[in-house]
Amino acid sequence: MTLERLRVIDLETTGSRPPAHAVCEIGWQDVVRNDDGRWFVSSERGARFVNPGRPIPPVTMAIHHIIDSDVAGAPFWRDVAPSILRPDGGSLALAAHRASFEQRFCTPSLSGGARWVCTWKCALRLWPDSPSFSNQVLRYWRMPEGLDRETGLPVHRAMPDAYVTAHHLRDLLNETSLDQLLAWSDEPGLLPRVPSGPERGRYWADLEDDILKRFASDRDEDIRFSAETEWRRRTGDRERKPERPAQARLI
Fold first, then answer.
1. Over the Cα atoms of the chain, what is R_g?
2. What value, to the nearest 5°, has the Cα angle with vertex 7 and ends 12 and 172?
3. CB contact burial 3-17 (16+ within 10 A = b; e otherwise)
4. How far apart are CA 32 and CA 30, in angstroms?
5. Is the preceding peptide bond at 52 cis, omega within 30 degrees of 0?
6. Degrees to nearest 5, angle at CA 173 with 169 and 175
7. What digits encode the pLDDT tens for the residues 159-212?
8. What 3-state class would DSSP assign to 52?
9. How far apart are the C-alpha atoms of 239 and 131, rounded to whole Å?
10. Which residues pair with 10 in a beta bridge?
11. What structural domains does the chain harbor?
């Protein structure tokens, strides 16, 4: 029988692109359902150093402060990952903040094909008024109940970051269903506002049609998806996308 649990994962790595880069630390924090159906952050958490099999670049040391001597005697990723990603008793899904990053390293062969909840994508949907959607901005904007400040420090280390993310996940699960979170996580991010450029901070619903159409041809899939979603709402057509400018078609 599968335990009513989701496992939050956070990785510290030598860079962002495997196989050129590798994991040097993994942290986890479980979120479990009570008998009354409410979700809570459990005491099951931890972290393991991982030998990345290569030197850690100074630019990434400066972020997480993990140095080569910390990981010299640690197990390799292929040896440590499966037992953490597939815990005894199972899990309903894995979760991470901007889960696409963790999924680059936590491949289906290591995770057993687990589904993922992206707390970043789900926060965009349920907490659109947040000034930003990073793990730490959400932490201080929301001030989640029960989050112990010291356990959530230092930032940019695997277990403390997973612990903070787990509080966001708990509250997301207590606001809507796991199925809904998984569905949102499978789509691009639905940004509540324009993230950059001259229109930065404007809500999609406030944009003029020609500006909205321009965003609908953006290279960024989250921007494109957000603009297309507003266009469908505006036109009442769930299938029709805005016609892209002639220059975009030529390119």
1. 20
2. 105
3. ebbbbbbbbbbbeee
4. 6
5. no
6. 120
7. 999 999 999 999 999 999 999 999 999 999 999 999 999 999 999 999 999 999
8. coil
9. 31
10. 27
11. 5-186 (3.30.420.10), 204-250 (no CATH)
The two beta strands, 23-33 and 5-13, are: antiparallel
The identity of residue 177, as a single letter, is S
Candidates 197, 195, 199, 198; CA nearest to 226 is 195
The one-letter code for the residue type at 25 is: E
Q: How much helix, strand and coil, in percent to the nearest 5, is found in the chain?
A: 40, 15, 45
Residues 6+ apart with CB under 8 A from 180: none
C-alpha closest to that of 133 among 187, 94, 190: 190
Q: What is the pLDDT of residues 86-118, one digit of tens each?
A: 999 999 999 999 999 999 999 999 999 999 999
For residue 209, give the 3-state DSSP assignment: helix
